[in-house]
Amino acid sequence: MSTSWTARVRKATLESYKPEDLLPDTQPAYVASWIYIFGVLTIAAFVMLFATGLILTLEGPAWWHGSGVGHYFNSMHLWSVELFFVFMVVHLWGKFWMAAWRGKRTATWVSGVIAFMASIITAFTGYLIQTNFDSQWISTEAKDGFNSIGVGAFFNALNTGQAILLHVALLPLLLGGIVVWHIILIRRKGVVPPILNDINIDGGN
Amino acid sequence: MHTAIINLNHPAHYFNFGSFSISAGNLTIIVSMIIIFGIALFLPFPKSHSDKK
Predict the structure, then answer these.
(1) What is the pTM of this model?
(2) Which of B33, B40, B47 sits opposite A34 (nearest CB)?
(3) What is the model's pLDDT at position B50?
(4) Which residues in chain A are contacts of B41 at CB distance < 8 A?
(5) C-beta atoms surrounding A120 within 10 Å
(6) How far is A38 from A17, CA to CA, in rounded Å?
(7) Which of A5, A60, A192, B10 has CA 20 to 30 A from B51's CA?
(8) What is the pLDDT of residues A109-130, one digit of tens each?
């Protein structure tokens, strides 16, 4: 057996994932419930966030503050993030109460937790770059908060340039990567079965 | 100038319960999420087309 890193990466990726698992066209019968759609709704809202954010990035603050079309896309970005978090929290509640970490799905659960945390941080940096009195208020309050816990020297919420780069460049890329990782893990292990069903099959492990 | 459906140009309204307080906006969102969660659990899901084959 080859011990080269290329062979190990190939076995861990291409040979571990069958195309029919990555892009399935059927799901188990228990997936036919509205509670199972909130993950994909979260992704749909994320796509809308990405698209509207891209347009806001291309046009800039003077446009989204000063024109009707700019207001429209600014509002689309706001309502997309509202729905993004609503869908994600309902998804989280659903997965919590069905104990979705069962069946060796710990990594799937943990990747979802990391995606949730990364989303909150990304949203906070979005507050900082609205370029209005709201972001001015939030950034000065956040600066006091960071100073009070001793990290003010490392992260300055008043540094608009840093906040813009975090919100527009780094964090969406990181979050996108985490979401892809989360989806691949779901595809690999499949959707978690209902608890009673799982107990009947393999004793709940 | 664009007018919003709901006038938001004023300080947020807060509900106070002793030491706990919450804004009307946040309370609305949380209650909405609980209602959506309940509907998702109990609303029947339409049968898939493949069932008819």
Answers:
(1) 0.87
(2) B40
(3) 58
(4) 33-35
(5) 10
(6) 24
(7) A192
(8) 999 999 999 999 999 999 999 9
A83/A85 Cα distance (integer angstroms)? 5
- For B49, other C-beta atoms within 10 Å of its C-beta total 7
Dist. CA A179–CA A173, nearest whole Å: 10
Name the residue with tokens 């509640």. Answer: A93
Q: Which of B2, B33, B47 sits opposite A90 (nearest CB)?
A: B33
CB A45 within 8 A of CB A87: yes
Distance separating alpha carbons of residues A101 and A116, to the nearest angstrom: 16
Domain range A104-193, its CATH number among 1.20.810.10, 3.30.450.20, 3.30.559.10, 3.30.530.20: 1.20.810.10
**Closest CA of chain B from A74, distance in Å:** 13
| Rounded Cα distance, A65 and A73, in Å | 10
**For chain A, domain boundaries:** 33-98, 104-193
Nearest residue to A92 via CA among A116, A108, A114: A116
User: What is the predicted pLDDT for the residue at B53?
Assistant: 45
What is the residue-level pLDDT of chain B in tens, covering all 53 positions?
Answer: 566 787 878 888 999 999 999 999 899 999 999 999 999 999 999 876 655 54
Q: Which residues of A3-37 are buried (b: 16+ CB within 10 A; e: fewer)?
A: eeeeeeeeeeeeeeeeeeeeeeeeeeeebebbbbb
For residue B47, the model assigns a pLDDT of 77
